Fold this protein.
Amino acid sequence: MRRAFAARGDELDIRETTGSGDAERLGKALAGGADVVVAVGGDGTIGETLGGVLKSARPETPFSFIATGTGCDFARNFQALRDPEHVVEQLTSAGIRRIDAGLLTCDDGDGDTVRRHFANIASFGVSGRIVRAVNAARKGRSLPGSLVFFWHSVTQVLRYQPCEIRLRLDGEDVFEGAITTVVVANGAWFGGGMKVAPRADVADGVFDVVIIRAASRLKVLTLMNSIYSGAHVRNPLVSMHRARLVEAWPIGKSPALIDSDGEAPGQLPASFEVLPGAVSLRL
């Protein structure tokens, strides 16, 4: 891709991250003078970089991405291009599509408040434990991302003790009780290819919210397998909702850990706010 950019005579400024938070910092700094900011990495890098652009002095700066991470779930919402020359051509000449972003505000686990944007999906419950296991794993990184997520999903479901939460959507209390997971979806996929919110649209100005209630481990594992095709929406353990503002609180002592674009920013209590048309996506 560097050669393809060079052949077009485009100026390319490449910055590399070394740890959590770097992508947001770089995205914020680069948005001030770039024609387009491109995140190269997984869903976490994409979400962090986008957050930096949205927090910059020029939040309307065109944003794009090249998905190279473990799950690559945000990229599944769009038509994929594989040839480097075609990718570069689109990055430099494609029109702008306005899409939504999410803004998460939560407890970081130490009593401090975190505010973080997400491009694709945020969730809490067993999914928060799964992303921590995936990110901490040192072995298996050469395996396909979908297999890595599947393995850790199974192991974490078998260990999971359901947490109890209270959930409010657009000011209305809709659920109180034990959960397997709750998904706040801008895009349709998470967990390395699970189509958890089949009707989600990244540009409709609203979240699709998926509640998966607590059940026996066998029932949860059976349900998990059906998420890949989207068939889980017919399961009585699952309810689907739509909302612009999602608020959730823990009940009891068991923490509800949060996943935000494959990263682990904290735990409940939390709010998730949709930002309609906030992203100038060039893709």
